[in-house]
Design a protein that fits this description.
Radius of gyration: 23 Å
Strand content: 15-25%
Number of helices: 15
Number of strands: 26
Largest sheet: 6 strands, mixed
CATH class of one domain: Alpha Beta
Distance between the termini: 38 Å
Strand order of the largest sheet: 12-13-14-20-21-26
CATH superfamily of one domain: 2-enoyl-CoA Hydratase, Chain A, domain 1
Structural class: alpha+beta
Length: about 500
């Protein structure tokens, strides 16, 4: 779990915070030796030095720092945080102070983490909240069939605190893209144990209040914390887990209907991976007409992005008019700020050379992408002209939501599910740079390029993701019975039937 969550995608793919089952609550006895790592104290001078590096990295490099929070508000928050460092703080206190501030960037590609070395050491001997959770309509449900609390039970309180109050305290530590919360709740399902530990401290036991499915009477049970390794295994056995997903797959559903599962655009930059993807698209779209396919269900609910251009390549098989990779792109600077604090394996000279080659200074003072660097595309001869049902959700982010923005331009597309985790209009990604703060060794990753997406004639509120034409969410009953409510709704539409009311926005 730790390894997978600390792996970063170069261009635009969503990465979960490295805070999942890996840091967390240490049990007593010999495991207590790990707790001091988070309780290490730092002088005001060292705290201010770290915070100043973080501030310079954001103010000097982040191209969308003021997209959703004004400069005046950020200046106020930065100054307020700086004053908080007038006293010594522990590493844990520093994280709790800084993380909510970074969250106010409202950028799904901006990460603030504990040091990888600390995370690696903590993952070995920590004990955490033991229940895998899933959030449906902002409520927490047990997502495992073989634990002390029954599958699908709604968790109403932990240690006497209502779940709503707990989430209100923890969600500011989870990033979003704009103001919407769908991505936050997806991440919280993966990261709840750690965030609970960091905020509330060490707990050996948890008093769980829950409401079993079909019951109006709450039950209560005391459960013990579990080692991080065991929790990792438990999380991999979630009831809702489908198994290992292929990055892309085309499946026959029934005559006239095909399912295209596009779970990632992370195919790497090597020639072999790119060619395999190109061949997959070419061969399959050539057969759609002869197979008399009239409807494609395009599942993007797990697509958190990947490498730039893979989204556009797929859209060329749906496009109805010429288009480019992005509507526009710009950057604040061609010079990486505070580069002396970059983490290892960063290549600032190469990156600055690339930026200088691709961008030129505009009248606004920012640097805009040269038109010749923004690739032009035409619709394929085999472009699909039947109806497309696009399944979206909180994990739809970065390149996944860029593809959605392309599809908004088509008149044959219906969106189903929940609001995308990625913003509908602007997002910052591309050429991310990673910093090591000099004293706490916390890390901040900052994207350097701001992209504007094509989004057709549809309009959405500022800070929102792409909102579906049919808002459909899984119900508690469907969770327990392993029914894919969103897919079921889409297939009923494709069959020309009136979909069931369950889960539909009324």
């Amino acid at each position: 779990m730790f390894e997978s969550l600390t792996t970063r995608i170069l261009l635009g793919g969503l990465v979960l915070s490295c805070f999942t089952a890996g840091t967390g609550e240490a049990a007593k006895s010999k495991k207590n030796r790990l707790t001091p790592a988070l309780e290490q104290s730092f002088t005001p001078e060292k705290l201010k030095e770290d915070f100043n590096v973080l501030r310079q990295a954001l103010e000097g490099g982040h191209p969308g720092l003021y997209l959703y929070t004004s400069k005046d508000e950020f200046d106020r928050r930065f100054d307020q945080a700086d004053k908080a460092f007038d006293r010594p703080m522990t590493l844990r206190e520093f994280y709790l102070e800084v993380a909510p501030l970074v969250e106010k960037v409202y950028c799904g590609h901006t990460y603030f983490d504990l040091s990888p070395k600390l995370l690696k050491s903590l993952q070995k001997e920590t004990a955490l909240f033991p229940l895998p959770l899933i959030f449906l309509n902002k409520k927490a449900y047990v997502d495992h069939a073989k634990l002390d609390v029954p599958l699908g039970s709604q968790i109403t309180a932990i240690n006497g605190m209502p779940m709503g109050e707990i989430l209100a305290k923890l969600l500011p530590y989870v990033r979003s893209d704009g103001y919407n919360a769908t991505l936050k709740y997806r991440q919280m399902a993966e990261e709840f144990a750690l965030h609970y530990f960091l905020f509330f401290g060490q707990k050996e036991k948890f008093q769980i209040d829950y409401l079993p499915f079909g019951s109006e009477k709450e039950s209560s049970k005391s459960i013990k914390s579990v080692p991080a390794g065991k929790l990792e295994k438990t999380l991999s056995e979630r009831h809702s887990t489908i198994g290992k997903l292929k990055k892309y797959k085309l499946s026959h559903v029934e005559k006239g209907i095909q399912l295209l599962s596009m779970n990632s655009f992370d195919f790497g930059l090597n020639k072999k991976g790119r060619q395999k993807y190109k061949t997959f698209l070419r061969d399959n779209f050539e057969t759609l007409e002869e197979d008399e396919v009239e409807h494609i269900v395009l599942d993007l609910r797990q697509n958190d992005g990947g490498y730039v251009g893979n989204d556009a390549q797929l859209f060329s098989y749906f496009a109805q008019a010429p288009f480019r990779d992005v509507k526009s792109a710009d950057t604040k600077t061609l010079t990486i700020p505070v580069k002396e604090h970059l983490a290892r394996n960063q290549f600032p000279k190469m990156l600055e050379k690339m930026l200088a080659k691709d961008f030129e200074k505009s009248d606004t003072g920012r640097f805009v992408m040269l038109q010749e660097k923004n690739r032009a595309w035409k619709p394929r001869k085999t472009a699909f002209d039947g109806h497309v049902y696009v399944l979206i959700g909180g994990w739809t982010h970065s390149g996944g939501v860029v593809l959605c923005s392309f599809l908004l331009n088509n008149d044959n597309v219906t969106f189903i599910g929940e609001e995308t985790g990625g913003g509908h209009a602007n997002f910052t990604a591309g050429n991310m740079v990673l910093y090591d703060l000099p004293n706490t060794r916390c890390q901040i990753e900052v994207p350097l390029i701001r992209y504007e997406s094509y989004r057709g004639e549809k309009t959405f509120p500022k800070g929102s993701g792409i909102r579906p034409d049919h808002n459909v969410a899984q119900s508690q009953k469907d969770l327990i019975e392993n029914v894919d409510t969103v897919m079921k709704f889409a297939l009923e539409l494709a069959r020309g039937r009136v979909p069931p009311e369950d889960g539909r926005d009324k």
